[in-house]
Amino acid sequence: MPNKNDSFIPALTGIRAVAAYFVFIHHYNFFTAARFGNRVHLFFSELHIGVTLFFVLSGLLLCLRYYDQAMNRSRNFYNYMVNRFARIYPVLFLVMTINFIAYQSKDAFAHQAIPNGWLYYLGSLSFLRGFFAGFYDFFVAQSWSLTVEESFYVLCPFILWLCRRSKYNVIYLPLGFIGMGMMIVHFAANSLPYGFFTDYRFLFNFTFFGRCIEFFTGIALAIWYKKNKPAVKKGTRFTSLGILGIIACVWGLSLLHTGNVYGDYFPGGIVINNLVLPVAGIAVLYRGLLSEKNGVTRILASPAFVLLGRASYIFYLVHVGIFTEWFFQYFSKNPVLLFVYLNLLSILIYKFYEHPINNWLKQVLRK
For the purposes of burial, counting CB atoms within 10 Å of the CB of 251, is it exposed (0-12), middle (13-18) or buried (19 or more)? Predict the structure, then answer.
């Protein structure tokens, strides 16, 4: 997600931290049924919707930054790819390599349906793992979403070019991508190893083709914003409606939650998560963050939240994996302490690794 637009609209940086924290609560739900009741527990279990917040935000920010650029020019396209590589890859390489070395040392792959750890490690670094149901959620489980993000990054210049040619392509293109994904499932399911596009549920939960509406929702909002350029005024209308819409969608997902199966695994839940939530909840909230001044926007745009937002990519990658296992083993299993530890770790990595190497890579590769 581009830093340039983050500084342009600071609240959109702060919301990244909120999205990462939602996924953290989803994985370490300390709102237990015994203490808070089953309904509350199920509600917070569905906060995987933090990933949807990220996807819509990616579409919004990339469109804000690159919509007016002539990406068919080789220099512009090259700089675009350099920016994406410098933003995503250094942290991914660091986290995956540390996890790979640590897990290999204790033979963590012995019980997995993968020939060896190297296959999974290389699949992670090449972003191919997210296309295979057989091992998309092993190792650093949450990094499956990077395959979805990278798919969008590669296609984004082409998508923006088509959206400039016709405003209706914001609607037609996601329908086309969904159709392409369904064709891949129809012809490829069970014909390739490790569950390549294994079924329609996998398609709509874990691939760009099934989740493209989230990105296009962000693109549509960005195009509207660039065309109308609304003045920033005091108000809570869109911010409040967006928050209420998100709460309603999470509640709807929790009602579908059955046993250990999350709501978005069911057809109705997929519709809520992939369509209703982005359009009727998240886009409305982002509309408020773009044009309203209120308590929520002030908090998200504060220096503390901007810093946490900038470190949120690291937080997202390290909150499940060997870094957490080490903390549980040697310090504490308290999720609140884990939350504090992960934030401190993420800020340190951002300050002393991600930010410096990001700038260095862009300078070197652009030369």
Answer: middle
Residue 134 buriedness (CB in 10 A; 0-12 / 13-18 / 19+): middle
Among 157, 135, 87, 128, CA closest to 317? 87
CA separation (Å) from 100 to 128, 148, 242, 323, 329? 16, 22, 40, 12, 18
- Please give the tally of structural domains in the chain: 1
Q: Model-level pTM?
A: 0.94
DSSP string, 308-320: HHHTHHHHHHHSS
| Residue 57 φ then ψ, to 5° | -65, -35
Q: Which of 60, 75, 14 lies closest to 152, judged by CA?
A: 60
Are the C-beta atoms of residues 269 and 253 closer than 8 Å to each other?
Answer: yes
Of 142, 133, 140, 266, which Cα lies nearest the Cα of 197? 133
Q: Which amino acid is at 95?
A: V
- pLDDT value at position 146? 95
Q: Is the dihedral of CA 278, 282, 288, 289 positive or negative?
A: negative
pLDDT value at residue 113: 40
Query: Domain range holding 257?
Result: 3-366
**Nearest one of 127, 116, 62 to 93, comparing CA atoms:** 127
Question: pLDDT digit string (tens) for 102-111?
Answer: 877 765 554 4
- pLDDT tens for 141-175 read 899 999 999 999 999 999 999 999 998 999 999 99
